[in-house]
Design a protein that fits this description.
about 70 residues, globular, alpha+beta, 3 helices
Length: about 70
């Protein structure tokens, strides 16, 4: 499990798997969220990375929509 407090300032880009752990979704679901634009990501070389802030934004939207 990813401990968000362990992520240092220069390591604020997460792998798709790490982002999925934070938002509570499978790898495949996380990839679908990225493909649909529901979860922001960036391309770094050949890797797809998710900013930590994107996971936080996604969780906030889930909470607001559930209310």
């Amino acid at each position: 499990m990813v401990n968000v407090t362990d992520v240092r300032a220069e390591e604020r880009l997460l792998t798709v798997r790490q982002a999925g752990e934070i938002i509570g979704a499978s790898y495949a679901t996380t990839k679908r969220l990225i493909a649909s634009g529901d979860l922001r990501s960036v391309k770094r070389g050949r890797r797809r990375l998710v900013p930590l802030s994107a996971t936080q934004d996604h969780i906030r939207r889930l909470v607001v929509n559930a209310a």
